[in-house]
Amino acid sequence: MLDKTAISLLALIAVTCAGVPTISQASKIVLPKVSKISLNSSYSLRVHIWDVTSIAFTSDGKTLVSGSLDETIQVWNLPKRALVRSLPGNKEGVNAVAITLDGLTLASAGGSANSNADKTIRITNLKTGKVIHTLTGHTLGITSLTISPDSKTLVSGSYDKTIKLWNLNTGQLINTLTGHGAWVRAVAISPDGKTLVSAGGAVNTNTDTTIRVWDLPTGKLIRSITGNTNPVSFIGFTPDGQTIVSGDETAVKSWNVSKGELINTINSPSVEGIKAIAISPDGSTVATTSLDASVQLWNLASGKLVRTLVPAANNQNLDRIYPSSVCFSPDGKTIAIGHGGGAYNSQFSIDVQPLY
Q1: Fewer CB within 10 A of the terminal residue: the chain, N end or C end?
Q2: Residue 316 CB contacts under 8 Å (≥ 6 apart), including other chains
Q3: Computed from CA positions of residues 100, 102, 105, 106, in that sequence, does the dihedral angle turn out positive or negative?
Q4: Nearest Cα to 154, choosing from 138, 328, 254?
């Protein structure tokens, strides 16, 4: 049997890996294609026709779920490199997908900051594709989702500046957390399931970029962490639960959970900034993607570049394809990279690449 620490680590991986949510729309889906992208065992999954915003692995690493601004969710069988099913997503696009530890339940959400946005969260049986619950309560679109390690609680962050806690089994609202002065763009739960961290910010100069740390069972604010000058688009915990990792378009920062002190900063090497971030299962490595099309791996403790998986594009085409989302597999041996870019492109791939 797995001990509690092992279960918590698996749950962190199974939840979600997402890029920064934006506002776009597409109208139709083409037939899926799978193509090799190199001479090794890397391959590319193709069906989305707009930016791939969020990727999640099941804890066994055999299934990949992708959400897109094309308003669809795709479920992939990785051993067969085949599409299992297509699910409808939110109007104005899917911003977040999250999977329970047992791989049976999918949570998905999206929408925009417009008042008429699709503000629903769908809870779906991943094996059958049937919707179990439709959650309503946010007044604007949802940017982010995370599921507790015991798979009992779903947390959603929204453009409406609130965080909502839901009973995943019943679909009932448990609590609403307020205090953010701007969009809540990222949420994460600690491996022990006791602490919630949230962050965000809107695209203006005087936005609230504070990281807030909450006691998950009570909903009480533990502390506020300041020090970010740009809107925070990523938040997460290392597997030991001792470090918070936050990211914006200019840098990835590590913070001590107990005191809220800054530990380290990894500055974006590209003037085009950081688009998506993921933490490796062992917590030693952070992956970053950029609008310049590059994907890089960094040592979280030292802040040094470990490896460039995909080099920067050697052209100035602003409509180029770029990596819009990224996620490590549960065993840390594979990385999935979703793509976005110019509207003239007909397909946006998910590249599945071995790291070792």
Answers
A1: N
A2: none
A3: positive
A4: 138
- pLDDT, tens only, 50-108: 999 999 999 999 999 999 999 999 999 999 999 999 999 999 999 999 999 999 999 99
Task: Specify the amino acid at residue 304.
Answer: K
pTM of the prediction?
0.90
What is the C-alpha to C-alpha distance for residues 42 and 39, in angstroms, rounded to an integer?
8
Report d(CA 293, CA 275) in Å as an integer.
Answer: 9
Strands (E), 269-314: 274-279, 285-290, 295-299, 305-310
**Dist CA 274 CA 310 (whole Å):** 14
What six digits make up the tokens of 27? 């109208």
CA dist 149 and 175 (Å) reads 18
Task: Classify burial at 315, counting beta carbons within 10 Å of its beta carbon; exposed 0-12, middle 13-18, buried 19 or more.
Answer: exposed
Fold of 4-354: Methylamine Dehydrogenase; Chain H (2.130.10)
